[in-house]
Each structure stands twice: as structure tokens, then as C-alpha cells.
Amino acid sequence: MSTPTGSPTGTFSIRPLDPVADGELLHSWVTDPKAAFWLMQDAKLQDVEREYMAIAAAEHHDAFIGLHDGEPAFLMERYDPAHVELVGLYEPEPGDVGMHFLTAPSDVRIPGFTRAVITTVMEFLFADPAARRVVVEPDVRNKAVHALNEAVGFVPERVIQKPEKQALLSFCTREQFLAAAEVAAV
To answer: Can you state the angle between helices 45-57 and 23-30, rounded to 10 degrees?
Structure first.
């Protein structure tokens, strides 16, 4: 679906998620101990399939599998925060797009991999000319993702209380993302 993006860590692309065909793979990812902030540790395969079938059927939420050198390597969700996840928790602006991402568990460490993943996700989201600002709401305790978000241009706004967690509401405009990419290229 997306054009492959090359980086020193390999080639990345994104395709639509198939809740049934990708169910077992997703289940292994979201129940892995490293995915604790995904809040699906105790999910059964049927729970994961049902969750992603609901997302596939939703008007304002969709999910994708990210590929690294042609192999599934990350999960990405895109949502309209005016209708999903953040309703009533902030004032959405035209062009806001919400995002979640999860890298697959791996015993192999590739320096710069997660940064390349989030960069690919951001490029995918901003490939839509209507997207003006990406909105994220990671768990306040997830310090690693906060640093990663800031590295690609996100600016934290405030802590919000969601039903399932305390979250750090952060925003990244197209201009902030491009500026961060320029700094990273130097």
C-alpha cells in the first residue's frame, strides 16, 4: 500500500492489516511482555481478532502492518481523534490524525530500528495532504516512547486521564516532523 522507504536499517513499507490472516501474528506481538503498554497481555487469539475486526469495520479507525525488508515488523493504527480515543479529552483541530504503533518483539537489536519505524509511520500519515497534525497519547510511564516521539518532532502538551491509563497528550505538525527529520539527517 505504501511506497517502500529506504533507510540504513533496511526498507520499510505499510500494508492494510487483515484481522483474520494476521491474527496469530498480532496475538504474539500484543501479548508479549515487551508490549505491556498495549494493554492486551491476557488477550486470547479470538480477543485480538475481534478487536481488529472491530477496527476494520470502524469508520474512523484503521490498522496496518508495517514491513521491514518485506517481513511483518510493526503494527500501526490510525484514528480520527474527534471520533475515537480522545473524544472529550482535548479540542481536535481540522487535519488531526491519531496514531498508535507497536514494534514486533525481537531478540535481534538493530540500532535505529524503532526510530526508522516511527519515521515510516509519520511519513505514511503525512502522505495524506489532509493530515496537518499527528496526535498521540502514550502511557505517562512509557519514557522510551516519549523520547522517541520527541525525536521525530512531537511536543508534549499535558497529561490526560483516559479510562485505561494516564496519558501524555502530544502533538506533531508536519512542519515539526520535517524539522526533526532535517536535524536527524545532519
So the answer is: 110
